[in-house]
Write a sequence for this structure.
């Protein structure tokens, strides 16, 4: 009987796990988008950031160029920004 109970609750457990993982990803994306708006939006409209699709190397070059112009990002913030832009605005 115990085994049957476990089998019936397994799909519910898997569904809950998937939901929680997706929520975590959505929250992470929201945090990264806020970071982009905060850091990039200080000098120009963030709309310009999202107009062109670039691959990972291109996004790294853009971020490097912005850092040369005064953008302040920690190493972790830079990884998050480039990761988000590559994932959502990559070629």
């Amino acid at each position: 009987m115990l085994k049957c109970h476990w089998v019936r609750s397994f799909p519910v457990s898997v569904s809950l796990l998937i939901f929680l993982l997706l929520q975590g990803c959505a929250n992470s994306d929201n945090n990264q988008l806020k970071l982009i708006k905060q850091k990039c939006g200080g000098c120009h409209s963030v709309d310009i950031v999202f107009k062109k699709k670039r691959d990972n190397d291109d996004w790294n070059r853009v971020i490097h160029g912005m850092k040369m112009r005064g953008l302040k990002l920690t190493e972790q913030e830079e990884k998050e920004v480039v990761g988000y832009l590559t994932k959502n605005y990559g070629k």
User: Anything to note?
Assistant: The longest helix spans residues 2-40.
